[in-house]
Write a structure and sequence with these properties.
This protein is an alpha+beta fold. Helix content is 29%, strand content 34%. The chain has four domains: 95 residues, conserved putative lor/sdh protein from methanococcus maripaludis s2 fold (Beta Barrel), CATH 2.40.420.20; 96 residues, Beta Barrel (Elongation Factor Tu (Ef-tu), domain 3), CATH 2.40.30; 69 residues, OB fold (Dihydrolipoamide Acetyltransferase, E2P) (Beta Barrel), CATH 2.40.50; 87 residues.
Length: 387
């Protein structure tokens, strides 16, 4: 009987050892994972434009003469800085200038005639007064008095008509001057000539109704810029005027410019083959940051919606299925799935309200094959990547 028991014990030991050996030889290799530490720090909720924004000048004028004509003088060139009120371009207008001189001469003549008419009116009025006195003395007939009074009234009417003629001549002169003004372009503000579409001697015409044509002169105020960017309609309701923003420009690499939201459009843009968006405008907080900018630069605007400091946070890439993470347990080398409650989030970090503790290790390589709950894992590069 003892011999039977001993044999059963030996075979059990052999089977256990054999089974353990088989498991050891056939067990799956541990998965390699990259982990990050749960830390405390600042986290922001932000909104970023869906497509590239654009740097725009606060003032930009696309200038063209109000009437068609031949360019007689082009006083500027591209890249030239001009002052407000400076002449930029004039069309051939010799005929209008000659007409201005003619109208000015007519005004002089009209004023002379008016002065003569008014002097005659004064004489006639004084004569009528004398005749009226003589009538009281019965020294003159009533017919002579009537004639003198009528003459005085007629001379007065001639004076008033002559003065009105002067006003008419002045109005005609003003009309010609306004026509002359339409043949010239003056700088409406201080700026830089960005583009010129035309040369001396060429004929230019204003844009027909409903048909846009190239402006002759493109004037840009380079002292002030802002960024306009499209925000997805889903996020637009969160963006408010005066919110803090960060501006980045491809032309300036990773440099970040502080900014502030100055406008949120009152309508949604509906464009074919594009998601519906709302344009926002972001001003540069520091005017010195505008130095060296050029209208048309591509730009991105990140609007800060909310900020929380000293909260638990983990990389956003560690979260799957909205609220689940995999935690690496150093004491066992196992992966454990946890459900967490999240708060603020952005592309980089997500706030952890509950479900994790400080210094725990969460897996950020969740897309790798075999990375799942209950698996044995080893840290990539001896754990150096979870600082």
């Amino acid at each position: 009987m003892k011999r039977v028991v001993r044999n059963i014990f030996l075979w059990t030991v052999i089977l256990l050892i054999g089974g353990g050996g088989v498991y050891y030889l056939t067990r799956p290799d541990p998965v390699t994972v990259v982990v990050k530490t749960v830390t405390r720090g600042l986290i922001e909720s932000t909104v970023v434009n869906t497509k590239a924004g654009t740097v725009k000048a606060c003032r930009r004028a696309l200038l063209a003469p109000a009437i068609g004509g031949q360019i007689a003088r082009l006083a500027v060139h591209e890249g030239m800085t001009v002052q407000e009120g400076m002449l930029l371009l004039s069309l051939w207008n010799d005929d209008l200038q000659a007409e201005v001189l003619l109208r000015e001469s007519e005004i002089i003549a009209a004023r002379e005639r008016a002065e003569a008419s008014c002097l005659n009116a004064d004489v006639a009025q004084r004569q009528a007064v004398r005749v009226a006195k003589l009538q009281k003395q019965k020294a003159i007939s009533e017919e002579d008095v009537d004639q003198a009074m009528t003459t005085a009234k007629a001379r007065k009417a001639d004076c008033e008509a002559a003065r009105a003629a002067v006003d008419v001549s002045l109005a005609r002169l003003q009309t010609v001057r306004e026509q002359l003004e339409r043949t010239v372009i003056y700088a409406p503000f201080t700026g830089v000539i960005a583009e010129i579409n035309g040369e001396k001697g060429e004929y230019v015409t204003p844009s027909p109704l409903g048909i846009a044509t190239l402006p002759v002169i493109d004037l840009v105020d380079t002292s002030c810029f802002y960024v306009t960017a499209p925000i997805d309609e889903v996020d637009a309701a969160q963006v408010k005027v005066n919110m803090t923003a960060r501006i980045t420009l491809d032309a300036f690499g990773k440099r970040v410019f502080p900014g502030k939201v100055i406008r949120v459009a009152d309508y949604v843009l509906e464009r074919e083959k594009q998601a519906r968006t709302v344009d926002i405008e972001v001003d540069f907080a520091d005017k010195r940051d505008m130095v060296g900018l050029i209208p048309g630069y591509s730009a991105d605007a990140e609007v800060i919606i909310d900020v929380r400091e000293d909260v638990f946070r983990i990389p956003s890439e560690a979260i799957f299925d909205d609220q689940n993470v995999l935690v690496y347990l150093p004491e066992t080398g196992m992966l454990q799935q946890r459900t967490i409650k999240v708060g603020l989030e952005n592309w980089d970090f997500t706030e952890v309200v509950s479900g994790l503790e400080k210094d725990e290790l969460v897996v950020v390589s969740i897309g790798r094959e075999g990375v799942k709950d209950g698996e044995t894992a080893v840290l990539e590069e001896s754990g150096k990547q979870y600082d």
